[in-house]
């Protein structure tokens, strides 16, 4: 079937509209495309899903975003990445975590606390601890301490950093039943007592 409409086409469906396409579906829109859905929208794709955007991609979500990935996730970004979080951020890693930075790494915070069974700091050129005019430096030449006073018998217990409460991140679940296939118990009614069931 081939149909050509030269100007506008308006279709109004009072209730449901269902389409079943046995092969491919190709949709070409030469100008803008606008879709308005006033309730929920679901897409079930049993194989790959590819989106190619030539220019910008903008997504605005006025509530929460939940993603659940059973396999791996890879992001390859060729230019800068900017992220701004106005509230807290919690990151939980089940196994190892590694961060490789080619140039500089700068962390600025009110307090910083590291807690681990073992902490090793390794530097090729040197490591310095600075506070005011006091400096403790370790480099390949030795250990150097610059301080107005050195007290080895002090009862000073050191400084404390603020703890950040640990939160539990639950596994997202799909809370709706997805119908994959319906199989009727009978295909032809022989008498009035038979009931078609799925």
TrEMBL record:
Superkingdom of this protein's organism: Bacteria
SUPFAM superfamilies listed in its UniProt record: Phage fibre proteins (SSF69349)
Protein name, per record: Type VI secretion system tip protein VgrG
Species the sequence originates in: Malaciobacter molluscorum LMG 25693
């Amino acid at each position: 079937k081939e149909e050509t409409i030269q100007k506008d086409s308006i279709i109004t469906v009072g209730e449901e509209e269902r389409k079943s396409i046995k092969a491919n579906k190709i949709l070409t829109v030469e100008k803008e495309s606008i879709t308005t859905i006033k309730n929920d929208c679901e897409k079930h794709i049993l194989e790959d899903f590819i989106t190619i955007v030539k220019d910008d991609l903008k997504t605005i979500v006025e509530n929460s975003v939940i993603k659940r990935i059973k396999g791996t996730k890879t992001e390859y970004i060729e230019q800068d990445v900017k992220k701004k979080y106005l509230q807290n951020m919690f990151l939980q890693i089940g196994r190892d975590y590694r961060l490789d930075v080619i140039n500089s790494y700068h962390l600025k915070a009110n307090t910083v606390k590291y807690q681990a069974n073992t902490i090793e700091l390794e530097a090729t050129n040197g490591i310095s601890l600075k506070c005011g005019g006091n400096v403790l430096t370790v480099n390949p030449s030795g250990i150097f301490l610059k301080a107005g006073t050195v007290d080895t018998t002090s009862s000073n217990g050191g400084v404390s950093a603020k703890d950040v409460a640990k939160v539990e991140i639950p596994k997202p679940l799909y809370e709706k039943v997805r119908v994959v296939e319906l199989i009727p118990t009978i295909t032809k009614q022989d008498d009035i007592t038979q009931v078609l069931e799925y």
